[in-house]
């Protein structure tokens, strides 16, 4: 069964960026600390050894991506290919900017988060759907269309920045599915209870 | 070596109470969910079976308590005895209310968090010091006098409430010392790096 899975690196105090994040400072000031477990000092993705590498393999085995517009635009839609040519869905109320026309795998979905998730599940062909972005995660939780969370909890208190969860209109019960302990991150897998 | 250790139950989204907490609603609306792992439906403390019970045993093996005034007053200073008659230190800029005079083990410390921690370590006689309360934790982190954190991370998103960490003036690096996985809580032990 295909599941929609939020993958996010988060500090113990709940931040996914440092302060003052924006188009030219995607992770905010100091926020790159959250990606130390998979990005080297040259800014390149490096598969970690040990259990963290296995978690990253799972991420790259997903069959479609749903990503918030803010993240998508900051990274220029990953040049149209996040990994392995899987389709990328961007829920947004506004039409895409012109540059997106060059990326045939990128689809803007203007009729809501539930539609974006359904289209992504269909495109994933039985594989999981990678979900990314704080706003997208919050809306998906509200709409009841997020199935699981894989939080890479980083042993740091950032103190300031953009929060993954912010405030939600209602509580959400979770079930612990797996905890993977490494020095660089605690990988916490939850299923959303409905 | 005696260590000052913050013990707190926290939702995945960082809350230690539900919304609208106050003197008559200490855990806020719905916040009792965070204590399900050790409080039964009658409001009584029950030692959990399994690894969570071992964590609770560690908490009750501490030799002194440092607790924020807000929490202390809401619970009436636990009637003067948190556990085993160990001393209780309350950092506060204001003198205690009159009721505290009846509790010889409770000491208000008006010259700062560092002093409260030092007095508690002295009183603990080589055992660890139990630290409790969000405001107290934040001030102790800022002052560099919190040694470790034991976070009981509860598999729930509360959505609203009082945050454990709020905003801090500077980041704090942590070291993962231990992760204990149970269905009811993920017990995360960190050492504060200095």
Short characterization:
The structure is a homodimer of 194-residue chains. Chain A has 194 residues and is an alpha/beta fold.
Describe this entry's structure for a reader.
The structure is a homodimer of 194-residue chains. The two termini of chain A are 16 Å apart. Chain A is globular and about 40 Å long. An eight-stranded mixed beta sheet of chain A has the order 4-3-2-5-1-6-9-8, sandwiched between helices. Chain A has a single domain, classed as Dihydrofolate Reductase, subunit A. Chain A is an alpha/beta fold and 194 residues long. Chain A contains four helices and nine strands, in the order βαβαββαβαββββ. Chain A has helices at residues 51-60, 69-74, 113-124, 134-143; strands spanning 4-11, 64-67, 87-91, 106-109, 129-132, 148-154, 156-157, 172-181, 186-192. In chain A, a hairpin with a 4-residue loop joins strand 8 and strand 9. Chain A binds chain B through residues 12-14, 30, 33, 141, 149, 151, 153, 155-160, 163-165, 167-176, 179, 181-183, 186, 188, 190, and chain B through 12-14, 30, 33, 141, 149, 151, 153, 155-160, 163-165, 167-176, 179, 181-183, 186, 188, 190. Strand 7 of chain A pairs antiparallel with strand 8 (172-181) of chain B, so a sheet runs across the interface.
Detail the poorly predicted runs of chain A. Answer: none
Beta-strand fraction estimate of chain A = 25-35%
Gap from first CA to last CA of chain A: 16 Å
CATH topology of chain A: Dihydrofolate Reductase, subunit A
Order of helices and strands of chain A: EHEHEEHEHEEEE
Largest sheet of chain A: 8 strands, mixed
CATH class division of chain A = Alpha Beta
Main sheet: strand order of chain A: 4-3-2-5-1-6-9-8
* Tally of strands of chain A: 9
Q: What would you say the CATH architecture of chain A is?
A: 3-Layer(aba) Sandwich
Helix and strand composition category of chain A: alpha/beta
Please, what is the CATH homologous superfamily of chain A?
Dihydrofolate Reductase, subunit A
- What is the overall shape of chain A? globular
Number of helices of chain A: 4
How many domains in all of chain A? 1
Note the quaternary state here.
Answer: homodimer
User: Helicity of chain A, in percent?
Assistant: 10-25%
- What is the residue-mean pLDDT of chain A, rounded to a whole number? 96
Largest interface: A-B, 35 and 35 residues
Rg calc of chain A: 16 Å
